[in-house]
TrEMBL record:
Superkingdom assignment: Eukaryota
CARD domain: residues covered: 53-146
Record GO biological process: regulation of apoptotic process
The keyword Secreted is assigned to this record: no
Name of the protein: CARD domain-containing protein
InterPro entries associated with the record: CARD (IPR001315), DEATH-like_dom_sf (IPR011029)
SUPFAM superfamilies documented for this protein: DEATH domain
Assigned keywords, A-Z: Coiled coil
Signal sequence region: none
Pfam families: CARD
Biological source species: Ridgeia piscesae (Tubeworm)
Coiled coil: 202-278
Length: 284
């Protein structure tokens, strides 16, 4: 079973309080290479002398903290391998760093913190050996001395590469990290864009469906209204036709009565004329 990683606050119980340092103390930890603007290399130092003085050792690592972090964060496995080989590190120490900090630069800083305050002279020597053999240009810069050749036991413990290969590997590792960062960033951006497009499409589809449904409801209402109007029109047409037919019947009946009355009037006129004729005859 893997040990439970210690929290950062719990680790501070074993390390001096570094957050309370002044800005000058923090700035003093930044050491640049000559190509990056440093005035001159430091005076020659020895690992043995620094390891024999705990205060000087801590000041040395503190002064070069940021430089070391920037140079070693891509090669932490080599430090783990040699420190465990020298009995300085345990698997728990390694898992503590790996499980607590997701960013490699933070892992490198925590490794230096543990070496500075928890592992003593032996841990410092083993750490500086990896710096000397893996990063000779860094070792020469911070120590002011020429690095030595790795011993056979170191070569047997760690698969070493030459300076050119190490530099090439570091460049490729950094390029790989950059590519992974860019790929991750582009992937996240594309996912966000796809989500945004999908959301807009879904909203548009939803709005379109709502609009179509509303239009269908409106058309149905208009259809019902038109059907009602058509029914009323047909009813009025039928009523009008019936009224016209009735009027025609009344007209025909009236015409018949007019003819009959005309005939009666003619007959009465004839009868009146006959009566007048008879009356004249009787008078004479």
């Amino acid at each position: 079973m893997r040990p439970v990683p210690m929290e950062r606050d719990a680790l501070k119980l074993h390390l001096p309080e570094r957050e309370a340092q002044t800005q000058e103390d923090v700035n003093s930890r930044i050491l640049r290479f000559p190509s990056e603007g440093a005035d001159s290399p430091p005076p020659a130092l020895t690992v043995e002398a620094l390891a024999g003085d705990e205060v000087q050792m801590q000041q040395f690592l503190t002064r070069n903290y940021h430089l070391l972090c920037k140079k070693i964060f891509m090669s932490l496995d080599r430090f783990y391998s040699w420190l465990r080989n020298e009995g300085v590190f345990t698997i728990h120490d390694q898992q503590l760093i790996e499980d607590t900090y997701p960013i490699k630069l933070d892992k490198a800083g925590h490794l230096i913190d543990i070496i500075t305050y928890n592992k003593g002279p032996k841990g410092f020597k083993a750490f500086m050996e990896v710096i000397e053999y893996e990063f000779p240009y860094v070792f020469a810069h911070i120590m002011g001395t020429t690095p030595s050749t790795p011993p056979p036991e170191y070569r047997g413990s760690i698969n070493l590469e030459g300076p050119i290969e190490r530099r090439s590997r570091a460049m490729w590792d950094q390029a790989l990290v950059d590519i992974q960062d860019v790929t991750s960033r582009l992937t996240k951006e594309m996912i966000q864009k796809f989500k945004a497009v999908a959301e807009r499409a879904q909203e548009a589809e939803h709005m379109t469906l709502q609009s179509l449904q509303q239009e269908i409801v409106t058309l149905k209402e208009e259809k019902v209204s038109l059907e009602a109007l058509a029914a009323n029109y047909l009813l009025e047409r039928d009523e009008g036709c019936a009224a016209c037919h009735k009027y025609q019947q009344m007209k025909d009946t009236s015409n018949v009565k007019v003819v009959e009355l005309s005939q009666q009037v003619t007959q009465l006129q004839r009868e009146l004329s006959r009566i007048k004729s008879e009356s004249v005859t009787m008078t004479t």
